[in-house]
């Protein structure tokens, strides 16, 4: 077995040891088609107030700008589908936020994997990312054979659906790339488009980020949510899973085994009234390590008031 083959096998085995469910490899290179799509998306203002999406355009479409001399882009998927769901009448929270902040959990796994590579391979250059840098992770996941990008903009894995976090490791280590995922198994299905409460999912796999419930409940920092959205949030208080919940491929989703993603008990059991009476101190204590802290207490209370106000 040659050195490149040996190192490729090492990466795949290390990914499993570090708790990732899937691992795929692509050759680093400029993303020409994505550059055109991203430019068009930004020019149409679909990023809303997410101005960070406009930054570092060159880095988003060229991994060698992030890691000079990059040879390989390694993509990892980590399942976050929960073992328990919220009460039916509770203010709804996106499943990815049920447990500990995924950035912390996955960074630990990426650092562990990099340590293994440094020990087994030697001096290599590599940077791991999880939703924290200008990386087009879904494109790299598709290029590394892990699935296809659905009409809702999510990566869909044929065996397990779309409730996955995507992590990326860009390295100068030469590896054998996997075959890109060539087919799109969405077919004529439009369940996600039809179900979107705010009609944010457009044809041709375009999602208007500035119309998504996740945008309004997490990204938007304004004191008020626009009135024209009143009555359209379907009780979503933080994020939105509607397009994933209706996707037929998610019938294959299985509960994750990650201790860090174990649902916070209060998140599953708090009623609307209990949320409304929560103090800021209690919020900070209960959700200290939760993704909900991104919206802060003030944002959660704003969202709660909005979804409980009759238009």
- List how many beta strands DSSP finds: 10
Largest sheet entry: 4 strands, antiparallel
Briefly, what CATH class of the largest domain?
Alpha Beta
CATH topology of the largest domain, which one? NADH Oxidase
Q: How much β-strand is present in the residues?
A: 5-15%
Notes on the structure:
- By secondary structure, the protein is of the alpha+beta class.
- The chain is built from twelve helices and ten strands.
- The protein is 33% helix and 13% strand.
- The chain is globular, with a radius of gyration of 20 Å.
- The chain has two domains: 3-86 and 95-171, NADH Oxidase (3-Layer(aba) Sandwich); 191-307, no CATH class.
- TRNA binds at residues 221, 298.
Break the fold down into its secondary structure elements and pairings.
Elements: H1 3-17, E1 22-27, H2 32-43, H3 57-61, E2 72-79, E3 92-93, H4 102-120, E4 126-129, H5 137-143, E5 148-149, E6 155-156, E7 164-171, H6 191-195, E8 201-202, E9 206-207, H7 213-219, E10 236-238, H8 242-245, H9 265-269, H10 272-276, H11 280-286, H12 296-307
Parallel strand pairs: 3-10
Antiparallel strand pairs: 1-2, 2-7, 4-7, 5-6, 8-9
Helix pairs in contact: 1-4
TL;DR of this structure?
This protein is of the alpha+beta class and 311 residues long. It is built from twelve helices and ten strands. Cob(II)alamin binds at residues 60, 131, 152, 155, 166, 214, 240-241.
Based on the model shown, name its key terms:
311 residues, alpha+beta, NADH Oxidase, 2 domains, four-stranded antiparallel sheet, 12 helices, 33% helix
